[in-house]
């Protein structure tokens, strides 16, 4: 039922055709958006149960425990879900840069009418 | 070139097979994540040029000027794009609730081990 999913208190994620929902991550201190990734049911359950961010890597086709290789784990303070339950918002304490480029956040460039600008 | 897209200063969105990228929206004052939506090239251009959030409605299959019917437009303070340019982050001043349920944010429920909780 749409109403239940949108206003109820039952976790009922609306998995996409690929079995995924979107996961966005913000820094619990700065509030900055750090990254956007995806979760399957296993990743969401692992994140809720374990308290550290676990995603599904679409490029590698496998569960992705954030920081497993880099050490930059993300301790989860809070998890929110949106009205139609196809996106979750993780509020985290990151142990290091979120982005594989080495930037603190993946969103390190501004979009302007004249192209992109690197943020200071 | 992947390197250019990931580290360069040329706007080169990585449109999905559906012609869309993800757009997440935060409140410029509170920092709260308000909603997650999608943009096609026209929506992104309209947002950059016009200074108000324009999305692509996947359900209606049409351009969606946020607030066109509700009046709850989102004035855009800043736009960021992520490393692989398949997601943008809009920092906005919302004129009213972002969510069609009437909640300020679509992310108005917390995910816990025991289900969902409505935020105060």
Summarize the structure.
The structure is a homodimer of 120-residue chains. Chain A has 120 residues and is mainly beta.
How would you summarize the topology of this molecule?
The structure is a homodimer of 120-residue chains.
Chain A: H1 2-7, E1 21-27, E2 33-39, H2 41-50, E3 54-57, E4 62-65, E5 74-81, E6 87-94, E7 109-112, E8 115-118
Parallel strand pairs in A: 1-6
Antiparallel strand pairs in A: 1-2, 3-4, 5-6, 7-8
Detailed description of the structure:
2 copies of one chain form a homodimer. Chain A is built from 2 helices and 8 strands. By secondary structure, chain A is mainly β. Chain A has a single domain, classed as Roll (Ubiquitin-like (UB roll)). In chain A, the strands form 3 sheets. A 4-stranded mixed β-sheet of chain A has the order 2-1-6-5. Chain A has a two-stranded antiparallel sheet with strand order 3-4. The first copy, chain A, starts with a helix and ends with a strand. Chains A and B meet through strand 1, strand 2, strand 5, strand 6 and strand 7 of A and strand 1, strand 2, strand 5, strand 6 and strand 7 of B.
Described by its quaternary structure, the protein is: homodimer
Helical amount of chain A: 10-25%
Number of strands of chain A: 8
**CATH H-level superfamily title of chain A:** Phosphoribosyl-AMP cyclohydrolase
């Amino acid at each position: 039922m749409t109403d239940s999913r949108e206003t109820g208190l039952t976790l009922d994620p609306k998995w996409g055709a690929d079995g995924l929902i979107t996961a966005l991550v913000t820094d619990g201190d700065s509030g900055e958006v750090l990254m956007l990734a995806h979760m399957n049911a296993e990743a969401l359950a692992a994140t809720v149960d374990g308290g550290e961010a676990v995603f599904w890597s679409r490029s590698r086709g496998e569960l992705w425990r954030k920081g497993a290789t880099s050490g930059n784990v993300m301790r989860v303070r809070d998890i929110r879900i949106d009205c139609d339950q196809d996106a979750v918002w993780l509020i985290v304490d990151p142990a290091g840069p979120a982005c594989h480029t080495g930037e603190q956040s993946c969103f390190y460039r501004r979009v302007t009418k004249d192209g992109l600008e690197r943020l200071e």
